[in-house]
Design a protein that fits this description.
The chain has a domain at 199-298: Serine Threonine Protein Phosphatase 5, Tetratricopeptide repeat (Alpha Horseshoe), CATH 1.25.40. It has 15 helices and no strands. Helix 5 runs parallel beside helix 7 (119-135). It is mainly α and 303 residues long.
Length: 303
């Protein structure tokens, strides 16, 4: 998923604080612009906050905004705007596990972008369709989408897009049980993140590398990458990824019979859950935390 995080960290943190305070007003402004016939303003304003919603994962509010934006884009008869909004709708539907709606939105966006020759837009949709295929267990399809995305990123010399592409390729290869290939793709993605000083994608890559090293049973490396993912995502304001990374550290340390460390991470995740905005996005996290808490508190039966 695409958004830019190029501000120095102090300015970035100020921007996140501002969005935390003002996103409700921006949402109201989008609705008002559409209601009073300012449709160009409505669709542009709705898309301007994508980075914030990607981090906060308040997907229900984002979905509502994009539904308003789609009407606005079609009202002004802008295929460019409609393609962008359809892609944004697909991201919201996918994040809410409404996969059939997500596929329809992504494919409609791709058809428009092919028609108008928007190669950058096609790359984004290939990326999103690939992630959707991977989540649905269609790993070979996901690999093909990643390869199509990578071809465009190479053509456009888009290192940011390539970093996302190679990480998603790695996840698809991991699902297809091509673990060493997955590791190579994800390490390449991490190198690209370092080249362009990209914070948010780097956190995701470290998290996914943790999963790959865990499958390779290289648990110390897994914990190292999960810990870096937790620290980096916290710096980026992405507390959902922070919580997941801390949970995975807890699970690995429990596997290593270090129950004291596992319990410490249970507490850290539990405290983060209270601050997360959208309960829907943390349902699975809560279930996994409950299972880990049970593992760390269960006593050994007496002989």
């Amino acid at each position: 998923m695409y958004s830019d995080f190029d501000l120095p960290i102090t300015e970035y943190e100020h921007a996140m604080c501002w969005y935390d305070r003002e996103h409700g007003n921006l949402a109201s402004a989008t609705h008002s612009a559409a209601a009073f016939g300012h449709h160009e303003v409505a669709w542009q304003l709705s898309l301007a906050s994508f980075g914030y919603y990607r981090i906060s994962q308040n997907w229900r509010e984002w979905l509502n905004l994009q539904q308003v934006a789609l009407v606005a884009a079609r009202t002004v008869k802008s295929e460019y705007a409609e393609a962008w909004v359809l892609n944004a709708l697909g991201v919201a539907y996918s994040s809410l596990s409404q996969y059939s709606d997500a596929i329809a939105a992504f494919e409609s966006s791709l058809a428009i972008r092919r028609r108008i020759g928007d190669r950058v837009g096609q790359s984004q949709v290939f990326n999103n369709l690939g992630e959707l295929a991977r989540r649905s267990g269609r790993f070979e399809d996901a690999i093909r989408y990643a390869e199509a995305d990578n071809e465009i990123c190479r053509e456009m010399n888009d290192k940011y897009g390539s970093a996302i592409c190679f990480n998603n390729l790695g996840k698809a290869l991991l699902g297809a049980r091509r673990v060493e290939d997955a590791l190579a793709a994800q390490l390449h993605a991490l190198n690209l993140c370092h080249e362009i000083a990209e914070l948010f994608v780097a956190a995701e890559v470290h998290y996914d590398l943790g999963e790959t090293y865990q499958q390779l049973e290289r648990l110390e490396k897994a914990v190292q990458h999960y810990r870096t993912a937790a620290d980096t995502s916290r710096s980026a304001g992405d507390l959902v990824t922070t919580a997941w990374a801390l949970l995975r550290i807890g699970e690995v340390t429990a596997d290593l019979d270090d129950l004291e460390a596992a319990r410490e991470h249970v507490g850290q995740v539990a405290s983060l859950l209270d601050t997360l905005r959208d309960a829907y996005t943390v349902k699975d996290l809560e279930l996994r935390l409950r299972a880990l808490r049970h593992r760390t508190t269960a006593t050994t039966p007496s002989c």
